[in-house]
């Protein structure tokens, strides 16, 4: 009876440790467990990177989205991207660049070292098409969302009562302005 007591204590400690590990928010790389790509998809991509090109066919959004999902799940999927690029068309390379940028953006907050690895990977590729997709996606992320109000800047905020050059005039901007009226010159 005395010999089994330490064994029970050890078993209880192991059970507590395992349950604490499983209940903690698991992050393989940059995202929670619910947002990860299936491990079978990651292993299929690592073993044969062209599988992603075949699955997405000519759907560039699907290609960049799936690549982003693989990279934020497991950074080991980054090296096979180089092999996939050998078989990718010019348009696919642009989509791959966009997917790499999206993966980097998703990893910046949770795993900055992973985001830095992605950025360095793109820089070392020296591929203009991938860089174009990477930078285009960066510009799109910085652009305002359609339908959202633009932030007030010096270029879009009227400087005074007569500075508005729109076609509506009057106190409440309800009267149609004279389109042939000379534009006031700056002094």
UniProtKB/TrEMBL annotation:
Keywords of the record: Signal
Record's signal peptide: 1-28
Segments of this protein annotated with the region Disordered: 142-187
Biased composition (Low complexity): 142-170
Domain of life: Bacteria
The protein's name in its UniProt record: Uncharacterized protein
């Amino acid at each position: 009876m005395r010999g089994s007591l330490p064994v029970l204590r050890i078993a209880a400690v192991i059970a507590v440790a395992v349950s604490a590990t499983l209940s903690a928010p698991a992050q393989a790389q940059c995202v929670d467990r619910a947002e990860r790509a299936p491990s079978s998809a990651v292993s299929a991509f690592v073993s044969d990177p062209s599988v992603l090109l075949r699955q997405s066919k000519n759907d560039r959004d699907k290609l960049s989205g799936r690549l982003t999902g693989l990279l934020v799940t497991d950074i080991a999927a980054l090296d096979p991207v180089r092999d996939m690029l050998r078989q990718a068309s010019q348009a696919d390379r642009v989509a791959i660049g966009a997917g790499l940028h999206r993966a980097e953006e998703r990893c910046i907050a949770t795993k900055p070292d992973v985001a830095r690895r992605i950025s360095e990977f793109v820089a070392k590729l020296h591929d203009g098409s991938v860089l174009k997709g990477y930078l285009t996606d960066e510009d799109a992320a910085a652009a305002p969302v359609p339908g959202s109000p633009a932030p007030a800047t010096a270029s879009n905020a009227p400087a005074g009562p007569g500075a508005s050059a729109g076609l509506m005039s009057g106190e409440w901007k309800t009267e149609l302005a004279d389109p042939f009226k000379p534009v006031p010159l700056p002094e």
